[in-house]
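Dear colleagues,

For the upcoming journal club I promised to circulate an example of a predicted protein-ligand complex. I picked one with guanosine-5'-diphosphate because it came up in last month's discussion. The inputs are reproduced below in full, followed by the predicted structure.
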Amino acid sequence: MLPTLNEEEALESVIARIPVSALKKMNWKPRIVVVDGGSEDSTIEIANNLGCESIVQWGKGKGAGMRQAFEHFLTTDDQALVMLDADGTYSPEEMIDLLINLSNENVVIGDRLHGKMGVDAMTPLNWAGNHMLTWLAVALHGKTVNDLCSGYWAFSRFAIENLKLNSMRFEIEAEMYTSCALQGITISHVPISYSKRIGEAKLGSIKDGGSIARKLIIRRIFPIPHEAIE
Ligand SMILES: Nc1nc2c(ncn2[C@@H]2O[C@H](COP(=O)(O)OP(=O)(O)O)[C@@H](O)[C@H]2O)c(=O)[nH]1
Ligand SMILES: [Mg+2]
């Protein structure tokens, strides 16, 4: 599952690098789903031309889009979901490592902070912010996480069925972590490589870093999101 917002520069190469044949050899039946947040460039056209399924999300933000992609996933018989940003920062080939580890866990997170960081892949501000937010997450919620804000995750169907989320924007990964901690969903980590982004960043370091910290604190006080109470 690829969340997109105006990613025409990177999307084609990201899709081309998804290791479809290797996945088929591992007995997966992969399909590629793009969830788009209202791109005004040729992102959706590229996705459709390359035979991907596309979901045009309601509302704005990566979190809103991912929650809709999770709902869509639950209408299928699929057994696992891999999400990664569509901006060229993650290596699609490495999803094999995530999926191998998924056989023992409910969730596997690609760990950029103990992996291979490319030149200029992360600004010093983002590097420090990622470490601080990861530390804050563990201090508040007690469950090990190596790279809270990674955008490369693999989930079992069980995990998707049990996550309780209401994030709209870039707090979604922090809330996926807190939900794993609260709902007893197991997590493991695989070191991954991280490269410089193609195209323009949508995340604002200070504003979105603040919302991520706020989400970690809110979930410590109110563990279940209002919308998710059944
Ligand atoms: N569906 C959807 N995807 C989004 C939205 N905003 C950003 N994205 C995608 O989410 C991913 C992460 O965004 P990015 O700007 O790279 O943020 P960063 O990697 O956290 O710095 C990229 O693939 C974006 O195209 C949105 O509103 N909806
Ligand atoms: Mg990115």
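Two points we might discuss: The chain has a mean pLDDT of 96. DSSP finds nine helices and seven strands in the chain.

See you all on Thursday,
B. R.
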